[in-house]
Write a structure and sequence with these properties.
Length: 164
């Protein structure tokens, strides 16, 4: 009789079915708990990322030097802050110097003269930029015409074009 009792499976009492209200309450409780856990995890991750970023900034900024700063010798010779107030001596004996020319297929014609960017028709020290070529520009001041080239004549390459 004992063997027969063990051979038959035991029956569990039936679980009462939940109605829609308890299921909804259970789902909302799980959603709130999940949202709270995600918010906490996100806040922790954000705080960690900010702490790492703040720790890296001073280390990265220490090795970078400003390439536009004058050399220390010039600053010492002129005094602190005086280097920016002193203008550069004029190149080419006071004549303007053409530093760059940009031409494009859509009519773009731009020249950089003494650090100033000019388009054709713009004025430069009372002269009008009338023509922008591949390696030169033309400045007109009334009847006077001045041609500026990228390389002065003494520095220009004198080899024939086929040898270049």
């Amino acid at each position: 009789m004992t063997a027969a009792r063990h051979a038959s499976p035991r029956r569990r009492p039936p679980v009462p079915a939940l109605g829609p209200a308890p299921r909804l309450a259970l789902a909302l409780g799980l959603a709130k708990a999940t949202a709270l856990a995600l918010t906490t995890a996100l806040a922790t991750a954000l705080a960690t990322a900010l702490a790492l970023a703040a720790a890296c900034v001073p280390a990265a900024a220490q090795g970078l030097a400003d390439p536009t700063r004058p050399p220390p010798e010039a600053v010492r010779a002129l005094g602190v802050g005086a280097a920016a107030a002193v203008p550069a001596p004029p190149a080419n004996g006071g004549r303007p110097q053409l530093q760059s020319v940009l031409t494009g297929s859509r009519g773009r014609e731009v020249a950089v003269i003494d650090g100033q960017t000019l388009r054709r028709g713009d004025k430069f020290h009372g002269a009008v930029l009338s023509k922008v070529g591949k390696n030169s520009v033309v400045l007109r001041r009334g009847a006077k015409v001045e041609v500026l080239t990228l390389l002065p004549a003494e520095q220009a390459d004198t080899r024939p074009a086929t040898a270049r």
